[in-house]
UniProtKB/TrEMBL annotation:
The protein's name: Protocadherin-20
Span of domain Cadherin: 26-116, 117-222, 224-436, 437-538, 539-642, 646-758
Organism the protein comes from: Carassius auratus (Goldfish)
Subcellular localization: Cell membrane
InterPro entries associated with the record: Cadherin-like_dom, Cadherin-like_sf, Cadherin_CS, Cadherin_N, Protocadherin/Cadherin-CA
Principal subcellular localization: membrane
Record flagged with keyword Glycoprotein: yes
Keywords, in A-Z order: Calcium, Cell adhesion, Cell membrane, Glycoprotein, Membrane, Repeat, Signal, Transmembrane, Transmembrane helix
Gene that this sequence comes from: LOC113113346
CDD domains linked: Cadherin_repeat
Length: 830
């Protein structure tokens, strides 16, 4: 290799003929090896050599340049994405070893789809962003192609009208289109689609996750289970908790901070007795509470948050007096309890919770009853005790905690001795199945999608608490689809093809964390939208038709069917035509048939090689071509043409000594038809003189032979009227010719001055067979007459013949030749 390169260097150095102007050739990337890109022959003569055959080679004799391998423009010119991609080479041409520089330009094709650097793009937007606010997106797709093939446009899917994409030059922004509310929807899952501008566009997607951040747009609210009554036992000690208030703000962080305060309208006595923690909402005793008679205080409490009007509630506090002989309640728990708190599973039927015994040392016995708000509980006397029970099953999802207030009063109910509160906690059980937001989801996606493309998100909620209410997702018949177990995001696991399956009906399953878990189902319908990815298809790449050359115009030659697996306009055949110019055929698109548009003549052209193209109505337009061969079948429309003899006046001199069985001459005729239509037969239908003729013609070859020895009466001119007929069906065609033969001893050139006259009989005699008399009935009479004359004059004739033959033999020994005539010109006669 090194020695060969050194030889070329020395050769170029010695040649000294280097052209400063470089030849420029253009090729397209990704072509197969062996594609011709140009030629050196228009400018230079052979031979041809290239110094470098890494990408192109040259034919040494023709100068044609061919690619040697696929050329990837992006690999060849990685730093010239937006410019022209070229590589250089040098040719050595002609016998004088001229050096010709070359530049090969590699044009781009759309073989690279846009690519996002990451599949998940996070974006944070405050919920008070006004409509029309734009947020820049730095995660833009890149395309290695150039020009329109590398230019990218963007659009959004699954935005539900909240956002749109604005593209200004190289800037890409997400624009808010609807008001946002974090408390309604905190996360928006969008699909950002990037499509290039190639003739056959390529696209890619990225998941755009928009998190809506909180602003202080919600005010605090007291919880429904905040206490509205509380009881302070006798001898209440400073710091004893009275009531725990609960309030919530739907905002987050600092925006959700709440402070509690008493209204200024509460009594001075209440202000002295109670303390409210501004941060926790805990009401406690500010001093030791010892009263001789029951007291009731209405405490109005505010829940405050910045920029919001305060929420308010009222807590009624009962202070029990110090009574030496007040009745007390002894609680004997029946149900499960922890730290004096009854724990009851939800959905239990009415259940006994505790046995209550009223211990009263006073003379006036007290009674025990329930506060009117202590529902759904009941208190029933049982001998000297009371049974505390639930009056109906409890539902954790409605309320998880109850304060059952017992009231101890005198028998007449006029005096309140004290209040006792029994706390009941409802324990959650897995009695709620997850519930989908929709029972049916539907999504459209274009076929040929990228694997992993985001489709939609299903969402279900569970009214149970903690682990029992935690929902996970699965697909029972996912097949080509996947679902994220935690988020419910459904994506396509592979590229989808509408022509294989147009609709997928999936079943999404949501199950909770209970033991056993509960499930619910939703139907997810995925509709695959068509793209024009299937060209029209002919049933065969090569059609063959046979048509008679006598076919009338606009007659159907055959059916040309074509189909397209796409649907709608993508699968509609909008154009079906013949690409060849000036052919006597056209395609009827409405009927799908090939028709003749002009006369055809097999003798001028016996077949037509056509190229037919079918074009669909999709975008981009796809087309397919097929070959079509039409064979023209022969019709007997050409009569035989006699080429020899060339004229009805041609004449041939025959020696009387010609041996019987000798071929005298030949009729040569042609027929431009084919097959049986061109099969020619020959027949002598008349001769002059008419008595008899010593000549016979072979009906197949046209050879005229002498069938008997020439006699004295045979001397002179013989005119044979011959019919040349083809064997066409249904009606054969024919032509005629006169063959003039002169029997003469001198062998001089004979002449015919006028064409003999022939009056045909009413019917043309039939074709001859091997026996001349049997095949020519009109000669039978003459043959019989001749035999009668010969029998009468046999003696005289024998003597004459004997003398004549003797004389003839002498002359034949001197002139042992015979003349074939001057049949020179080849001109057919009709």
């Amino acid at each position: 290799m090194t020695w060969t390169l050194l030889q070329w260097v020395l050769l170029l150095a010695s040649a000294g003929q280097i052209h400063s102007h470089a030849l420029r050739f253009i090729t397209v990337e990704e072509q197969e090896a062996g594609v011709k890109i140009g030629s050196l022959s228009p400018s230079y003569s052979p031979s041809y050599r290239l110094l470098d055959e890494r990408y192109v080679r040259v034919d040494e004799s023709t100068g044609d340049l061919f690619t040697t391998d696929r050329i990837d423009r992006e690999t060849l010119c990685p730093s010239h994405q937006d410019g022209e991609c070229t590589f250089s080479n040098t040719a050595v041409v002609s016998p004088n070893f001229e050096v010709v520089p070359m530049i090969i330009v590699v044009d781009d094709i759309n073989d690279n789809a846009p690519i996002f650097e990451r599949n998940e793009i996070p974006l944070v937007i405050p919920e008070d962003a006004s409509i029309g606010t734009a947020f820049p997106l730095d995660d833009q797709a890149q395309d290695k192609d150039t020009g329109d093939n590398g230019a990218i446009i963007y659009h959004l899917e699954d935005s539900d009208g909240f956002f749109s994409i604005r593209q200004d030059g190289h800037e890409l922004e997400l624009v808010v289109q609807r008001e946002l509310d974090r408390e309604t929807q905190e996360n928006h899952f969008l699909v950002l689609v990037a499509v290039d501008r190639g003739s056959v566009p390529l696209s890619t997607t990225a998941n755009l996750s928009v998190m809506v951040t909180d602003v202080d747009d919600n005010c605090p609210e007291f919880d429904a289970d905040s206490p509205i009554t509380a009881t302070v036992p006798a001898l209440g000690v400073k710091g004893t908790a009275v009531a725990q208030l609960k309030a919530t703000d739907k905002d987050l962080g600092q925006n959700a901070q709440i402070t509690f305060s008493f209204s200024r309208q509460i009594s001075d006595r209440a202000k002295a007795l109670f303390h409210l923690d501004g941060h926790t909402g805990l009401i406690s005793l500010a001093v030791d509470a010892q009263v001789d008679s029951p007291e009731e205080h209405a405490l109005k409490v505010f829940a405050n948050s910045p920029l919001c009007p305060p929420a308010q509630t009222q807590v009624t506090v009962y202070i029990q007096p110090v009574m030496s002989q007040e009745p007390t309640v002894k609680i004997k728990f029946v149900a499960e309890h922890k730290n004096q708190v009854i724990v009851l599973r939800e959905n239990e039927p009415p259940t006994v919770l505790a046995l209550l015994e009223l211990e009263d040392t006073s003379t006036a016995k007290g009674t025990l009853s329930l506060d009117k708000n202590s529902m759904p509980f009941s208190l029933k006397p049982q001998a000297s005790s009371y049974l505390l029970s639930t009056s109906k099953p409890l539902d954790f999802e409605m309320r998880g905690e109850y304060d059952v207030t017992l009231i101890i009063s005198d028998p007449h109910g006029t005096r309140l001795h004290r209040r006792e509160v029994i706390k009941v906690l409802v324990e959650d059980v897995n009695d709620n199945a997850p519930k989908f937001e929709q029972t049916r989801y539907e999504k459209d996606i274009k076929e040929n999608n990228e694997p992993g493309a985001f489709l939609l998100r299903v969402q279900a909620s569970d009214a149970d608490s903690q682990q029992l209410g935690k929902v996970k997702y699965s697909l029972t018949n996912g097949g080509r689809f996947r679902i994220d177990e935690e988020t419910g995001v459904i994506s396509a696991a592979e590229s989808l093809d509408r022509e294989q399956q147009e609709t997928y009906d999936l079943t999404a399953v949501a199950w909770d964390g209970g033991e056993p878990s509960l499930e619910s189902f939703a139907v997810v319908s995925i509709n695959i939208l068509d793209v024009n990815d299937n060209p029209p298809v002919f049933p065969t790449p090569h059609f063959y038709f046979f048509v008679s050359e006598s076919i009338p115009q606009l007659s159907q030659v055959g059916k040309v069917t074509v189909s397209d697996a796409d649907e709608g306009d993508n699968g509609k055949i909008v154009d079906l035509r013949i690409l060849n110019d000036n052919v006597p055929f056209a395609i009827d698109l409405a009927q799908g048939s090939l028709r003749s548009t002009a006369e055809v003549d097999r003798e001028k052209q016996d077949r037509y090689e056509l190229l037919v193209v079918a074009v669909d109505g999709g975008s981009p337009v796809l087309s397919t071509t097929a070959k079509m061969t039409i064979f023209i079948e022969d019709v007997n429309d050409n009569q035989p043409q006699v080429l020899l003899p060339s004229s009805n006046l041609s004449c041939l001199t025959i020696s009387p000594a010609t041996q019987a069985g000798s071929m005298i001459t030949k009729i040569y005729a042609i027929d431009e038809d084919s097959g049986m239509n061109s099969d020619i037969t020959y027949q002598i239908i008349a001769s002059k003189p008419a008595l008899h003729s010593p000549f016979e013609i072979d009906q197949h070859s046209g050879n005229i032979t002498l069938v008997q020895h020439l006699r004295g009466e045979d001397h002179g001119m013989h005119h044979l009227f011959i019919v040349v007929r083809d064997r066409g069906k249904p009606d054969p065609l024919q032509t005629t010719v006169w063959v003039n033969l002169q029997v003469n001893e001198t062998l001089e050139k004979c002449h015919v001055n006028a064409i003999p006259e022939y009056t045909p009989p009413r019917l043309l005699p039939p074709m001859p067979v091997q026996d001349r008399c049997e095949s020519n009935g009109w000669l039978i009479f003459y043959c019989g007459l001749c035999l009668m004359v010969i029998s009468v004059c046999v003696l005289l004739a024998a003597v004459v013949v004997f003398m004549k033959r003797k004389n003839t033999k002498r002359k034949a020994e001197k002139n042992n030749v015979w003349q074939t005539g001057n049949l020179c010109e080849l001109k057919p006669l009709n």
